[in-house]
Hints:
Layout: H1 9-29, H2 34-61, H3 64-84, H4 93-119, H5 127-158, H6 160-168, H7 173-176, H8 178-198, H9 206-213, H10 218-250
Helix pairs in contact: 1-2, 3-4, 3-5, 4-5, 4-10, 5-8, 5-10, 8-10, 9-10
Amino acid sequence: xxxxxxxxxxxxxxxxxxxxxxxxxxIWLQLGLERKLLIASLRMIVQLVLVGVLLKSLFSILSPWLxxxxxxxMVGFAGREVWARxxxxxxxxxxxxxxxxxxxxxxxxxxxxxxxxxxxPDPWWTPRFALPLLGMVLGNTMTGISLALDTLHTSVIRxxxxxxxxxxxxxxRWSALRPVMRRALxxxxxxxxxxxxxxxxxxxxxxxxxxxxxxxxxxEAVKYQLLVMFLIGGATGLGVLLATLASVWRLTDDRDRxxxxxxxxxxxxx
Length: 270
């Protein structure tokens, strides 16, 4: 049986009351989070409303160029978020370019493969399929890359004496930075590993829940969710690895020297 329950604006207003309660608790406990909570909520509402209008237009136009343009905007915005979430970031275009390039290669590449081989819409770039899938993959890849780069840069600063000692003893840059690289990779992988481990028992993912609520057979919803989780895991792992290796390459030179002047000052000191 296929059933669809339509939500009213009154339903949404009732659900928003819980955020109001959180804001009131923040004021009562003097957490100072009420303003951030309000801004984040308003930003979410505006973004989702605009996305809804945009997607409705894209679905009716079916233009590959508009689909590509929106996809590029999504990648660019996600790259900006990767850059902004790092306390110490690479200076110049490298700070934005490394995270964005790694995310675009891994996220967009795996999404295109999935659309052309596994999902197979006709045409493969149909925005109804391409953009939501790209958004889910990019969102998780963005989190992994930002955590990995932030951990890498912070660890390099903290462990500078140990790294330079290994370099002085004859280690090349890859060997000298291997411990911090491993820590950064673990940090980047951890969110998706935790998400996969908890999916199904602790939580039902948003996409699967939405499909079930809209009347899709649970077995079909499970298959689509597994597909999406496999794609997200693959894109996150590849993106984290590429971004970490590229950042280590940028933080050193061909003479196996550490180049920490290529990192910006911490945000608190900026």
